[in-house]
Amino acid sequence: MNKQETKKIIGLMKRQVVPAVGCTEPVAVALCAAGACRMLPNKPVKVQVRASANIIKNAMGVGIPGTGMIGLPIAVALGALFGDPGKGLEVLSCACSENVAEAKKFIDSGAIVISLYENAPAILHIDVTATDGFSTSHAVISGSHTNFTVAELDGTSLIGEHREGQHAQKCDDTADDPALDMRTVFEFATETPVDQLRFILEAKRLNTAAARLALAGQYGHSLGSTVLTQGPSMLGDGLMCHAIAYTSAACDARMGGAPVAVMSNSGSGNQGITATMPVVVYAEETGADEEHTIRALTLSHLTSIYIKQSLGCLSALCGCVVASTGASAGIVYLMGGGYRQICAAIKNMVANLTGMICDGAKPSCSMKISSGVSTAMLSALLAMNGREVTQAEGIVSDDVDTAIHNLTSIGRESMRETDRLILHIMTHKC
Fold first, then answer.
1. Strand, coil or helix: what is 357?
2. Domains of the chain with bracketed CATH
3. For residue 411, what is the DSSP state?
4. Cα dist. 47→35, 112, 113, 139 in Å?
5. Which of 96-123 are b and which e, b meaning 16 or more Cβ less than 10 Å from the residue's Cβ?
6. What is the residue-averaged pLDDT of the chain?
7. How far apart are CA 134 and CA 42, in angstroms?
8. Are 340 and 388 within 8 A, CB to CB?
9. Residue 164 has what pLDDT?
10. What is the pLDDT of residue 171?
């Protein structure tokens, strides 16, 4: 792999593996509101939000960090009144007690209107119009969680006049993203000079801190702490139990509204957690050195990015399927496996978790993540013992890239009607 290719992949990873405070869908809405309102000369008096169905789905039941509240209104209010668009997915770091109190008053005044954007131009699409009573601003995020495509004040575009912390960010430059395959992912993770990959250790630091916070408190369904304290009697006090506990705990914190940053992957904090924590736990408990830990984390995160390139940013296929597949690859590497064994583990994952639905971001995501973690470890174990699901079985193909694309085509295309039904059920509960 030449230096230019390596540079492009590092750039891709640094764009896709970034810190996020809170669930990325309500955070993206808060970011769009912040971008719109920061353009106004004065504080907003009315904010209108239209969001695509998948944004609504992933924002309905999730805790907003530092607020003790769930859902979009408080996220929109905080973003509109106090959000700095220059902070990207950390825009809700503004959620102190004083700001939350003022945001609640803003909601109670009827200043926020949120509606479904019917037939939105993208699966991830957020459209915010705001006014201070004199001027009107308009911001749109589309395609990815931080991708501003529109930033207008009184009809004049400001998208090309960005100044940090003042206007919406420019569109993300994704045109130069490298096309990946598993061989490229493997060679990059195992051959790139390790000092160029050291940035991935920040994922270990942030996501481990989130897990420890949850284990010391009560967030979400407290799955992580329950598994850690009571799980050994059922699962044994070993790697499987610890990997499930720490990964689920980080999700408990994030989905439960803890005011903590996690390292995301491809626009999802839960995907970032799942791509990180099983690998970290395995590395720590088997005494892996820093270089092997870095390369395993790189392999896990880049595998997840590769699969998401084909799947898309939001779908009816649960993101833990993607991220736990990456984790399984990273664990195989730490077990001493090479490319052949990693491919086997990925095919084992495709055979197992295909079809797991995403029914929105919420505290119970930790339970789906626990399923992904356990499957990742079992798939790695089978692969290291020369066992892999074959082309004769289901959607698996002998070629690993084809197997991955079989998985993503189901999630991207065949599950569209599933996604519509999920949203209908979620929005029509008694």
1. strand
2. 22-157 (3.30.1330), 182-427 (1.10.4100.10)
3. I
4. 12, 5, 6, 11
5. eeebbeebbebbeeebbebeebeebebb
6. 91
7. 9
8. no
9. 35
10. 33
